[in-house]
Design goal:
The protein contains 9 helices and 15 strands. The protein has 292 residues and is of the alpha/beta class. An 8-stranded parallel beta barrel has the order 1-2-5-7-10-11-12-13, surrounded by 9 helices. A 3-stranded antiparallel β-sheet has the order 6-9-8, with no helix packed on it.
């Protein structure tokens, strides 16, 4: 199965004009990715005028509605990771938080998911350093978010950036707060997280619950390498401009091209690309969520 991560929250749009910014562009890229072979799309939203990352519900709603108007079977995964970034002041005044810090309550991080009820909501399972920023969440906050997603009928995609995040997810599974089998996204190559190497991928895969459905992606130049390794190790694939803006060294990519390349990798390894019907069956998503 291929997931396409369409736009993310980084500055890729400043380097690659193909990174979609407006809801219309994001939805159109989702539909092109689906035609190229993606069974699911993972979406952030951006402020249409500036391209800066956004948490505005109306932008998520427009993306979802535009996709559903054309394709009501494509699996839509809306990010639940925005609003968790902590930025600290200088060492002598660390609690002088910069004005641009985007750090909100757990419910605020997923309020668009709870309202719009996409097929999947991403669930960032733990804290991690991102450069000088910290993506911060706590076990008790994750327990609350897991309960809310379960009550809304939205499947969580557990994003893990290091080994400890998997152990935290296991504790939530044991408490009945995450479904089993659990959907895991192994996030490799984020600075100060697990490395995008064969050893990094093997280490994370080796401690997953046995019945997990898992995907993996690598950031930057390692994206397509990790895609191939994931297939060889029995996992599924995520590609897209959120994680990598190049098709080859110096050659800017589109989301459609990255999905097409993932299809070639999968087929060259003797596997077949899963269609949406089979993907929904595997993930337990039998139909589009009511009210979306």
């Amino acid at each position: 199965m291929i997931t396409c991560a369409l736009t993310g929250s980084g500055d890729g749009h400043k380097k690659n004009p193909s990174v979609p910014v407006t809801p219309k562009q994001i939805a159109e890229d989702a539909l092109r990715a689906a035609k190229a072979g993606a069974a699911a799309v993972h979406a952030h939203v951006r402020e249409p005028d500036t391209g800066e990352p956004s948490r505005r519900r109306e932008l998520y709603r427009e993306v979802l509605e535009r996709i559903r108007e054309v394709d009501d079977s494509l699996i839509v995964n809306l990010t639940g990771g925005m609003g968790g970034e902590m930025l600290f002041g200088p060492p002598d005044s660390p609690l002088e938080f910069p004005a641009e810090m985007d750090f909100v309550s757990p419910t605020e991080r997923i309020e668009h998911i709870l309202e719009l009820r996409p097929d999947i909501g991403s669930f960032d399972c733990g804290s991690v350093n991102f450069g000088d920023a910290v993506y911060a969440t706590t076990p008790s906050w994750l327990e609350q978010m897991a309960r809310q997603l379960r009550e809304a009928g939205v499947a969580p995609e557990v994003e893990v950036f290091d080994l400890g995040h998997i152990e935290l997810a296991k504790s939530l599974i044991a408490k009945g707060l995450l479904p089993s089998p659990t959907i895991f996204q192994l996030c490799l190559g984020v600075r100060y997280g697990a490395p995008a190497t064969p050893e990094g991928l093997l280490a994370m895969r080796s401690i997953l619950p046995a019945d997990s459905v898992w995907f993996a992606f690598g950031v930057g130049a390692r994206q397509l390498h990790i895609a191939g390794l994931a297939v060889l190790l029995g996992g599924h694939v995520r590609v897209g401009l959120e994680d990598n803006i190049y098709l080859a060294r110096g050659v800017l990519a589109t989301n459609e091209q990255l999905v097409e390349r993932a299809v070639k990798i999968i087929e060259s390894l003797g596997d077949k690309v899963m269609d949406v019907t089979a993907a929904r069956r595997m993930l337990g998503l039998t139909a589009v969520q009511p009210g979306t």
